[in-house]
Amino acid sequence: MPTPPPVLVDIKFNPEGVARVLKTAFADRGSVNLADPANGKRDLSRLEYALVWKPDADLFARAPNLKAIFSGGAGVDHIIGMDGLPEIPIVRFVDRSLTTRMSEWVVMQCLLHLRGQYAHDSHQRRREWAKLTAPEAAEVTVGVMGLGVLGLDAVAKLKVMGFNVIGWSRTRKDIDGVETFDAGGLDSFLGKTDILVGLLPLTPETTGFYDSGLFKKLRSNGALGMPVFINAGRGKSQVEADIVSAIRSGTLGGASLDVFEVEPLGPDNPLWELENVFITPHDAAVSEENALFRHVEAQIARFERGEPLQFVVDRAVGY
Q: What is the DSSP letter of 81?
């Protein structure tokens, strides 16, 4: 039996880690790593599967016979809309490790705002012994926007910590013990929310979604005093000028941001200097290379056994 064509890999993060894991990944067929200059002019016309993250613009012209595309992360907005995108399945990366990492970050950020950690840090730098009285988690409502794999896990773990948790998605989901809302219930959802957690995918409908008008609809008389915005979904779903304005005006009492309109965040961006704002460099849930390649290997094996691929993107909705 002839050796099957190698897997095409075009990933724009951690090239050293990707190269290291590729030494043992796809042992039955090998791989073509476009980060390796030796592959710059290689003929890709025989390749059947591509694992990509922010791929080269001419990738699909160079590899016209692909059967499936695998995203290097949970999001697929870096693929949707590319010129020449073939009508083949696009598969999201869903993995226990990535999901757990995201929930860790979300829970941590909610607790930082609950317990006034920014104020504690400020007092520590000034060597001030200043006790704070924080509300209980049960007094605070966390509203999670986006109830896919990541959102559902975050909801479950926030509930374990004692928060009152509600959820919003484009179409309503049923979650035991959690009040949920759909598109028509957005204002009701926002009006009950003290900490807004954004885990939405990026689509035309969610671009610029988190703006001043939305922030003004959050609950302003809850246990935290002022609402908080947390986003680890997609940077282009937020209007950063509106976040800055909302923090300065008191519409928002704080924020935690892992994603930004332009990355890396520029050194002159005013978000760096705002009080009660926590910034992380898009590493809330970094794709771990070993888990990513195991996921792709498993999906290719399913596909070649004639079984349906899992986590396939619905192009009509963009995720």
A: T
Residues with a catalytic annotation lie at 234, 282
Cα gap 104→237, rounded to integer Å: 22
* pLDDT, tens digit (0-9, with 9 covering 90-100), for 220-248: 999 999 999 999 999 999 999 999 999 99
Fold held by 97-279: Rossmann fold (3.40.50)
- pLDDT tens by residue, 126-154: 999 999 999 999 999 999 999 999 999 99
Torsional sign, CA 229, 235, 239, 244: positive
2 Cβ contact list (under 8 Å, min separation 6): none
Domain ranges (residues) in the chain: 7-95+287-304, 97-279
Q: How far is CA 165 from CA 7, 170, 210, 315, in A?
A: 42, 17, 19, 30
Q: What is the DSSP letter of 78?
A: T
CATH value of 7-95+287-304 in 3.40.50.300, 3.40.1360.10, 3.40.50.720, 2.20.25.90: 3.40.50.720
Amino acid letter at 184?
G
